[in-house]
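User: Hi! Is it possible to get a structure for several chains at once, not just one? Here's what I have:
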Amino acid sequence: MNIDLYLKEKANLINQELDRLLPEVELKPQVLHQAMRYSVFAGGKRLRPVLFLATLDALEEPSEPYLPFACALELIHTYSLIHDDLPAMDNDDLRRGLPTSHKKFGEAQAILAGDALLTYAFKLMVSPKEKGASPEKLLAAIDEVTDGAGLKGMIVGQVLDIQAENKEIGLDELQTIHRNKTGALFAASIRSAAVLAGCNPEMLEKLTGYAENFGLAFQITDDILDVIGDTAKMGKPTGSDQEQKKITYPSFLGLERSQELARESVEKAVQYLIELPAGADPLRALARQVIDREN
Amino acid sequence: MNIDLYLKEKANLINQELDRLLPEVELKPQVLHQAMRYSVFAGGKRLRPVLFLATLDALEEPSEPYLPFACALELIHTYSLIHDDLPAMDNDDLRRGLPTSHKKFGEAQAILAGDALLTYAFKLMVSPKEKGASPEKLLAAIDEVTDGAGLKGMIVGQVLDIQAENKEIGLDELQTIHRNKTGALFAASIRSAAVLAGCNPEMLEKLTGYAENFGLAFQITDDILDVIGDTAKMGKPTGSDQEQKKITYPSFLGLERSQELARESVEKAVQYLIELPAGADPLRALARQVIDREN
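Assistant: Yes, the chains can be modeled jointly so their relative placement is included. Here is the combined structure:
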């Protein structure tokens, strides 16, 4: 299984669909559509849509009707980045080497572009009904996403992250922040696909175990890359966590133990998939790849 | 038909349901739940949920399973006010006589409380499936709301409103702004209820005609109240439009012609309901009441 090729193919598929769903020209007001499109196409590995599609593959469910749903997950991720970068939040001027939305379009438009992406995401999640998707399953999948993006996940993580600023927190609290802020949307991407594929409760639990360990490995690797990564490949200055005295896995555990923990999490993630056939190879490879990436 | 009693009963019903859906204590992070609840319970006539329920009544559809859906409309309205009040947008310190969300909780929490209300609204819209609501109809109703709150309505109106600042605009442009910014969510409240009630396309068109004229009468009256209203009853200083040189109906048409136009819009709105039985009396009374209100 060539995971790089798989990732590339799926990312291309998602990018084509995003291009169709977020047309560049003519739509009014132009600045709103430009701002939405700008941030969505400012890079990104499309990891959440890819996890969603790889889960459908693992469960042998055709993915074509659900491409807009996969894109919705990327729109939600993008809206969260736009709002997170705002002056009142992280106040970041650059993201992936480009000016952030509020630097490019002004703060009001950035807030509204985020709001619009979130709202439009729900329109996209509804849309597979036109291609014959089961309405019951769609509703259940949308419910998964509202939890992961909202009060049982991402927004909670954002609030906890803000509360932790300039405070001494422990490893437990750090994990709670990441599990909510990043992990929950990964989990929702996987769980919503599982629900759409009509997965049984036992397998849903196992895929959730995969998702949680995937998210942990992802976050630890993020922190490690901030210490040892290459600024050019990261699209942002490395070493910034240490400068800002941010609590990270390496600052708690040291670099070596952090790398070990990331590897252990990957192995745990893969272990959860042991009953699944070859269709789950992309999910397995994705977990291994998450700690080998350079950005 | 006693419209004041009807309004009061429905608003009580909505407030009880909102109280249940947004519990005050124990949920973490507390500040997030406090901020969500604060703005939702900072007053408001619950007009969008009431229009939603009155439409169900008009079409003789039981409303009980859809109470969370009705509340979702209020959450979306509330999130839009929180974001609209932000320093980067209208920069308002007071709303309905109380400190705005960012004044009370800080800007970051206000942004996140808005995001959380919007996300949670979709969870509530999904939830009537547990009470046996048709999944197909729920998806179609959610789609109506994504349009009205998003790229075919409210957010477009916000962007147009920002673009019109410090510019000379015409009456046409003023109407386009209001139709999107305020009218579209009224229309979505009515159309989503109609879709849930299984309404036929002809009646859906008529209810949309009602909604558009209702929205117009509402907005004209808002502008008139800013000229002649009572500061205490409005919860904000009147005369502010004129001070800020905002373009309004009275500034275009004069007070008398504006009042006339509001009356005409109400009569048109009511005319659209002519085929509907006594169950539509609340919708009729609501339209008449919208120009007689004092705040």
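Chain B touches chain A through 45 residues (CB under 8 Å). Chain B has 14 helices and two strands.

User: Great, thank you!
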